[in-house]
């Protein structure tokens, strides 16, 4: 059989997987037999590179998974509210939980994800049958590593498919030419995750730690440990189910009568938490990964494409290529509205993912992550070349983690955007991070505080497998964001005292990871998605129009930087009066002002707010999953169907 793409019922036609990172050579030896390919180490690497290349498609990890799939939450929203939020044939409606099986992107996403899985299956099977795998062969160690990389990538893909669709077909062998294994029914997601955990446990010993010889653009041992822990926690968490499972616990809140939200029995839950603790502890104890000194330093490196090789914060980042793939910074990020002298004739989009005013105000003003994450300004030439405040748009704050102003430090990217015309969309090439060290620490804090003896803060004093406590892990993440470490500790201690240790983890998850496609799936496994969305809406209604009673100001004032090195007028972010209402005399000290989040706007309160996540509990409670596309079902030979109240 030729080494070609084998067609599944779920992969109609050929899936393109063009290489985007310079080192990802994917020229496929497509006219060679499997035997020839996998009896040659170089060709085996090319086959593996094709798996990595498949991750750079728009409907896998270049655009959909990192930007769209994680919407909506309590702090992250899809762009376009009001009537757009109910448009079941567009991502704006679908990510407000109003999806329909006829949405065209569904089949494309399904096909693309399963296409990459098929390529991973080819690599695993080819290596298993390779003569190079024989004991004593000089290439055996490398071949085992390639196989482990392919199995880890496959596990990552299946976890994301489960998060999107729930129970899905599970296939870890290559497709047969007679289609005898092409048409598959759904497999229970718990069974899938149990298999993925076994695959990862087998693969981990064959993977190297991240460093100069194996950068984080390849699968590393640290990522495999973290992915296994993440799968274990997902396995232990809450899911909406097609039917109730015997012996499982049904949620007392936020559960549908016909499609219950359940989690596994307590014995299995504890087992999964212990498994997660083991693997997270291994990462921490290894000292192979660490937090970057400050959030600002981390995000600067990401924006300019600088790989960390010495104790990197990232555990795995999918390699993209400038002007080839990667929409971070273009479809999400700080807004450059139209042509500018500094950034070319087009500007960027950044419209798909937005943040909310209640999330912005949840930060301590001294938390440096606030203004890194929440971009309340945009750059444009409309009224002179200047930075301007967005104004009273409480559900339309840009996510500033990706920022043209930082990206300009990458000379290759800057040359590309300056050379482009007003129609040119320049892909950023910014890598998509699948796991970074703060998430490891937050997961660790969660499992250790759940499993072990607690002190008055609800934190671990006697962790069995690691040298740090749950509290210390949480404190590391929180303190890094502050210049004043004592103040940071005091604030965290007060948060724990007020709301409890677990709620502090939930909040820190938002502050640290918002906009990165993580929070939605954590809220789901905690069964907090609906509750947190309700809380954010209530917070907005409480704070708007109540400036006199301590609510948000109706207008904010600001100054421009006096010694800016930029070509444009740059707002002094430290001057903005976010937290107070000014007297007339005080207002005279400021150059500019703008209506702010505290001013009542009936379109926001009566239309937009109500449209946010409007389909999450209608007609089925807690229906966060997407339907399977009608076209996928129609070509499944009767094997697939929709549940959760979706039609076929």
TrEMBL record:
Residues 22-233 form the SusD-like N-terminal domain. Residues 420-646 form the RagB/SusD domain. SUPFAM superfamilies: TPR-like (SSF48452). Pfam families: SusD-like_3, SusD_RagB. InterPro entries: SusD-like_N (IPR033985), SusD_RagB_dom (IPR012944), TPR-like_helical_dom_sf (IPR011990). Residues 1-21 form the signal peptide. Keywords: Cell outer membrane, Membrane, Signal. It is found in: Cell outer membrane. Belongs to the SusD family. This is RagB/SusD family nutrient uptake outer membrane protein. It comes from Bacteroides difficilis. The lineage of its organism: Bacteria, Pseudomonadati, Bacteroidota, Bacteroidia, Bacteroidales.
């Amino acid at each position: 059989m030729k080494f070609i793409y084998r067609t599944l019922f779920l992969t109609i036609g050929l899936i393109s997987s063009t290489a985007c990172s310079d080192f990802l050579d994917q020229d496929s030896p497509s006219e060679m037999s499997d035997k020839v390919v996998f009896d040659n180490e170089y060709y085996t690497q090319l086959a593996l590179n094709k798996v990595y290349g498949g991750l750079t498609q728009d409907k896998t990890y270049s655009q959909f998974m990192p930007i769209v799939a994680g919407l909506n939450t309590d702090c992250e929203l899809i762009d376009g509210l009001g009537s757009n939020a109910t448009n079941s044939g567009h991502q704006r409606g679908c990510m407000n939980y109003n999806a329909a099986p006829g949405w065209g992107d569904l089949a494309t996403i399904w096909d693309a994800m399963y296409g990459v899985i098929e390529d991973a299956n080819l690599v695993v099977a080819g290596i298993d049958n390779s003569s190079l795998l024989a004991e004593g062969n000089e290439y055996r160690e490398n071949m085992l590593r390639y196989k482990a990389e392919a199995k880890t990538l496959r596990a990552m893909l299946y976890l994301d498919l489960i998060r999107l669709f729930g129970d899905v077909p599970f296939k870890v062998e290559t497709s047969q030419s007679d289609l005898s294994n092409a048409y598959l029914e759904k497999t229970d997601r718990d069974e899938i995750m149990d298999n993925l955990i076994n695959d990862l446990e087998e693969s981990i010993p064959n993977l190297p730690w991240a460093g100069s010889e194996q950068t984080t653009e390849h699968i590393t041992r640290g990522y495999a440990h973290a992915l296994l822990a993440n799968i274990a926690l997902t396995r232990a968490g809450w899911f909406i189910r097609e039917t109730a499972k015997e012996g499982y616990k049904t949620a007392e809140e936020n559960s549908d009568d016909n499609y219950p939200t359940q989690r596994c029995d307590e014995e299995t839950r504890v087992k999964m938490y212990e498994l997660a603790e083991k693997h997270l502890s291994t990462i921490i104890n290894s000292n192979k990964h660490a937090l970057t000194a400050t959030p600002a330093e981390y995000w600067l490196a990401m924006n300019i494409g600088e790989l960390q090789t010495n104790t990197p914060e990232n555990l795995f980042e999918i390699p993209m290529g400038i002007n080839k793939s990667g929409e971070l910074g273009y479809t999400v990020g700080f807004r450059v509205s139209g042509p500018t002298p500094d950034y070319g004739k087009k500007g960027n989009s950044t419209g798909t993912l937005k943040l909310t005013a209640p999330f912005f105000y949840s930060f301590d003003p001294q938390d440096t992550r606030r203004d890194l994450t929440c971009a309340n300004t945009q750059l444009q030439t409309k009224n002179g070349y200047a930075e301007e405040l967005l104004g009273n748009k409480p559900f339309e704050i840009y996510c500033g983690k990706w920022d043209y102003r930082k990206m300009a430090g990458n000379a290759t990217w800057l040359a590309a955007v300056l050379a482009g015309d007003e129609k040119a969309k320049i892909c950023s090439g910014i890598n998509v991070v699948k796991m970074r060290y703060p998430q490891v620490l937050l997961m660790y804090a969660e499992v250790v505080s759940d499993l072990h003896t607690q002190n008055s803060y609800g934190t671990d004093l006697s962790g069995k497998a690691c040298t740090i406590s749950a509290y210390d892990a949480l404190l590391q993440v929180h303190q890094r964001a502050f210049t004043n470490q004592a103040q940071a500790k005091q604030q965290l201690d007060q948060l724990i005292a007020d709301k409890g240790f677990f709620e502090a983890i939930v909040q820190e998850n938002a502050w640290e990871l918002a906009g990165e496609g993580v929070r939605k799936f954590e809220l789901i496994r905690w069964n907090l998605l609906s509750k947190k969305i309700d809380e954010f809406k209530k917070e907005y209604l409480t704070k708007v129009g109540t400036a006199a009673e301590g609510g948000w100001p109706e207008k904010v004032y600001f100054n421009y930087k006096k010694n800016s090195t930029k070509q444009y007028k740059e707002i002094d972010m430290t001057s903005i009066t976010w937290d107070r209402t000014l007297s007339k005399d005080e207002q005279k000290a400021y150059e500019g002002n703008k209506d702010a989040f505290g001013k009542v706007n009936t379109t926001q309160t009566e239309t937009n707010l109500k449209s946010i996540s409007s389909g999450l509990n209608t007609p089925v409670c807690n229906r966060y999953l997407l339907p399977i596309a009608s076209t996928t079902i129609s070509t499944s030979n009767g094997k697939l169907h929709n549940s959760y109240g979706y039609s076929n």
